[in-house]
Design brief:
By secondary structure, this protein is mainly alpha-helical. Helix content is 80%, strand content 0%.
């Protein structure tokens, strides 16, 4: 994200939150070998880099008065929450001295991972549905604009026809008076 727009920041945060969610679904059984563990660590490092970039961009947005300090504080809270999730995923413990990472049995962690994957699938399906709804809304809007245009044309044509009938009625009345003997 090169621009410091609020929408760009939101989109980047959503992308990083999604990546962190996907990282959480990697089961411990799959990450026992060094390759999977290294991939998980690389993904976590990439997400952390993105969070640092967002923090810098948030500072720039706040400096340029694009966002209020209260909104910047709320967004910093989101970043801190994502950082703590990331530290729980990777087992690192920044700022949490003495805190042990949660230990779970392999069956409960795989069940949690499956539940998170299922939630992600449901969210993806929901996003597809919202996209379809947006498309249909735009189509309905375009069609209603076309209907308004057609109704306006009809109104103009009715007014024109009415004026023509009135002219012909006056002409007929004049002819009747001119041809009338009495």
């Amino acid at each position: 994200m090169n621009d410091y727009s609020i929408n760009g920041w939101d989109n980047e945060y959503a992308r990083l939150a999604r990546a962190a969610s996907q990282l959480r679904t990697i089961s411990p059984q799959r990450s026992t070998n060094n390759t999977s563990s290294q991939q998980k660590q690389d993904q976590a490092t990439s997400i952390q880099t993105g969070l640092n970039r967002l923090d810098t961009q948030l500072h720039n947005l706040e400096s340029s008065m694009t966002v209020s300090s209260a909104e910047a504080g709320r967004r910093r809270g989101l970043l801190d929450g994502l950082r703590s999730q990331l530290s729980e995923i990777t087992g690192t413990n920044p700022g949490g001295i003495g805190r042990q990472p949660p230990t779970q049995s392999s069956s409960s962690s795989s069940a949690t991972a499956a539940a998170l994957r299922h939630q992600d699938e449901l969210i993806d399906d929901l996003a597809i549905g919202v996209g379809r709804l947006k498309t249909q809304t735009h189509m309905i809007h375009d069609e209603s604009k076309a209907h308004v245009h057609l109704l306006n044309e009809m109104d103009a044509n009715v007014d024109l026809a009415n004026a023509g009938l009135e002219d012909e009625t006056r002409r007929a009345m004049r002819l009747r008076e001119e041809k009338s003997v009495w």
